[in-house]
Queue: 4 jobs
Job 1
Amino acid sequence: MTAPETVEDSAETVPLTYRQVLGSRNVPQLLLAACLSRLAGSMLLFAIVLYVITEFHSVSMAGLSGFFLTLPGFLVSPVAGAVLDRLGAVRAVALDTMSSAVFISGIALLALGGVLTKPVLFVLLALYSLTSPLTAGGIRTLFPGFVPEAAYDKANALDLSTFSAIDVVGPLLAGAIFAAIGPNPTLFTIAGMYVLAWFSLTLLRGGPAGAPSAPRPHLLRSAWEGITYLFRNPTLRGLAVSYALYQAAAGMLIVIVPVAVADRLDGGRPVDRYVGLMWAITGLAGAVGGLIAGKVLRAGVERRYMVAATLVCAVAIFPVSALGSLVTLGIGLMLVGLAEGVVNVSLLSLRQRRTEPDRLGRIMTVSISVNLIGFPIGTALGGALATYSVTVALATAALMAGGSAAAGRLLIPRGA
């Protein structure tokens, strides 16, 4: 009697289902680690603002806390990518999850001891930020190592769909826990989630767990090679331009949506509640869009689907979202979410398939940072235009999305 054919063996000829991908070796453990670490990070972004306002009674300091929580990681992402390739993805992600738990619980312990000062808080948040690119790039480096290439799209769809759902759940859960048990217990809860993510990684068996054994260049040279490789690779270069424009549109919507909701509500109705509902709709639609993309995408068609979904996003922003009612705004954002799921799965699969495996860690971390450059530009532009006219702001965001589609069509090669 012959041994049963494994999922990995059969996947080259038979498309895998989501159930088969979830049943692949190490995928459940990796997905659990990804969900726990991302949920902890999403909760922290929201909770740290409440924490600083409660502990230090300063809104300006809360804003600086968000700055230190994010910017250092963005600046060191090329070096983090080189570290990722050097240590191996599993070890790098484990290092980040454990160090995150230490830094976040350290804030709470110092506060309970009455010795937490503003400079110490900022230092601990910056240290947390410095290792965060290891998980951001490492998780997406590991998935291709645990599934066949034919299953990249479905694995990425599961990864990105859970990410979209966490974007909805994270702030809600953080607010509820903060109100129920207080600031320092909330930080201990978040730190505990990072510990559980680390434990889930220890359950991985086999696969790309170790660092390469071949001689490696100096760390800074490896980081520089990651940057130059990205800009010399036509696909990655085209993705950087296209997705940066797409993120500029997304950044504009972050600012425009609250203004649009306020404009369309009569006085007395709570704006925050409706804004939260709009983004919940968008996040859930993004999860659905990602799962749909995982079923229809395959090697060779990612570019086509990415361009088409970006065009749908442009139309959803303008004219659909600009038609003048909360209903049409909600419909427009739902379409934006569905399209975003397809765009993100297409981008991730294309990047994985057209990057040399031994460079994937560096490229993933550098590429994530470069692709997100458009987001802060979009938020600044959205704020300036929304104060003048919501309709003009939405039209400009749609123009950015249309430019993203054009860049994808013109700059990303058809083949590898």
Job 2
Amino acid sequence: MESQALRKYPLLDKAGLIPVAPENPESLRHFLRKACKILGQGHVLWITPQGHFSDVRSRPIRLQTGFAHLARRVPSAMLVPLAIEYTFWNESRPELLLRFGDPVSALGSTGTQNTTGLMEEALTTTMETLARDAIMRDPSKFRTLSQGAGGIGGLYDVGRRIRQWARGKAFQPRHDQ
């Protein structure tokens, strides 16, 4: 994460985020050393290579080349694009939708620019696939990992509960049932 943004959220530093100052070569070397060590131990490393927060609809996707330098140093690393969207379907709180794309290999790549381009294409495809699935609002396209409480709450759900009670039916707070 960009070091300037990380200073605003010190808790994230404790969560393992690595501060990066793009204008500082020593900061970039520190990132590469730490990331190589993490990957070399067989661990997962989550990277946001755009270098800034952006809207999921922004195109074209432009990634910083730092992750491609990392992939060149750790050729066994698997580069997997991940698209994330928060979308409202039927409840008062959003759904968190994730889609993993096809892995991108840095092996045989002709350089960091090529690896970066391949990852930009893969991430774009993954994001567009997720967007289409989100618009369809078809839960069968996804696997539910965690489900929060349903319903709106407050007076609205009190009214719904009374209406269901008057009909002799059990109250179902979820809107998709």
Job 3
Amino acid sequence: MNLNEHSVRIKNIDAIQVFDSRGNPTLEAFVELENGTTGSAIVPSGASTGQFEAHELRDGDKEKFLGKSVYRAIENVKGEIRVELVGKDVHQQEEMDQLMIELDGTKNKSRLGANAILGVSMAISRALSNAQGKSLFQTLTDGGGTLLPLPEIQIMGGGAHAEGSIDIQDFMIICTGAESYLQCLEMTFNVFHHCGRLLKKKGKLAGVADEGGYWPIFDSNEELFEILLESIEGAGYSLGEDVQLSLDIAASEFYDNGRYHLNLDNRSLTGDQFYKVISGWCKQYPIISIEDPFAETDTLNWKRFTKEFGNKIQIIGDDLFTTDIKRVKEGKEDKLANSVLIKLNQIGTVTETIECIKQTQEFGWTPVISARSGETEDPFISHLAVATNAGQLKVGSFSRSERMVKWNEILRIERELQEKAEFIGEKIFSFAM
């Protein structure tokens, strides 16, 4: 489809308030081009948020949606952002993202709101792909991508995603023995449902957590390991070969005044004591990946842990890096991790997100594209994972439609790619420090 300059200029930008998977307000942005093509995108929201993340602008009026409405962010889209970008060529994603950053004028996008800026940034990407008559994964990066991601899927959820029912936020599996993306999903299906039956049988099932994993009832954090290992073996898979464990500790959530407070175990631990707990788990169980094992300010233990385990375990920085290329560079220099969790709304534009992914890959580290606990029906990150050949995708569990839409979108992308689709599974892991 040949497009002249006039046909790809932005005609209008709009936004409305919609709702995420927790029923909280969020923002959907719309970009209309002069040739009639449109693009839209919905912004997700996190519950376990790092102190270095871009600012999500909410109204704070307790009489409207308990202060969570986003009408100010919407007005910023319809006002200042619209005025700045109308008439711009939709091909100029990087230029427009930078214009919005400069228009905001703060370090964390707090004036206009990272949710306002990101919504428009994502919608611009969608409008371009629609104008070109191509799928989003083909237009997000030059030449697109072909690598299908290895899924990292939650089986049981805790922390801020389950009202602190357990201290650890995510107990996940990675099907390293799978030979295809579809086989990963099949193996996860079997483990997930076996775990559900097991929890129900033992009277340990409270419901479903924010990201779709089971909401368990336990007396200690270690109990989850036993249930998860029993679920994997009960589903017919070999521990450490077919299936390995992945943890998101989200340690900043229970770190205060230099101590880690494990409410479930009724323990308050020093950094050194908590290090022994985490390192003990990594030695005892088949853990291939661990995210935020320590608070983002506890860099001494990050460095110590990476030195001991960085050549055999994927150590992911989430709150530590917040998809910020400057923080990733500092982490590389200080040898704090070997992987970066990638979340669009942590940094606030598509351009900055892709730059962070590329920098991570240049370091020889692994980028892990991730959803948020407050998710939407928008499968943008599925396309982002393939477009950048990131190799891994983490969207929560194997239930709830806002999660399944991301897994299903990869199947559609695979169908479109046909013989060009690649899947390298466990080989994606790199332990460069």
Job 4
Amino acid sequence: MLSFIFYVALVVEAMTAALAAGRRKMDWFGVCVLACVTALGGGSARDILLGHYPLTWVGNPYLLLLVCAAALFTIAIARVVDKLHWPFLLLDALGLVVFTIIGCNVALEMGHPPLIVIVAGMITGIVGGILRDVLCNDVPLVFSGELYATVSIVTGAIYFFGLQFGFNSEFVISAAMAVGFSLRVLAIVLKWEMPKFVYDKDLR
């Protein structure tokens, strides 16, 4: 189940990145690059930081083909995809928690301590979106008050400590996904945001 949602999340991230590229009038190569960075960037950053080789997409090259195919397909149906705002938000929320759990698993298998496990999960979940926004010359969404990284941290913490307390892994995965997904959806609906630091004092 986790693997299936992972592939769905990759496709969704690729399609949203393709739309972002289209709004900035990028060529087809740019569309594919932005899609790959968005969908695979978080896992790549995690693997590089942890020294986990080969990178996920290097070990599984078909992931590049899947992401590029989703991006190019989006070009053909862009007008339809652009109208599916809520379904994509929900799938993105689901992808966030799944990427987080997968990232935590990689760090766990390498024997890292709790903090690194949770941070690895967060990196997997959010870095792709950060790279997308930077390449699009935008302030990353995750730095603009969106309750996104926090959801990833909560998901990772539930997953890690649930396993440490000896609960069944399937139960822990389900619980982490349910809490993380619900928290993200509530944040979208109720417009929950992180406190912002605003400093605009005139220093002249």
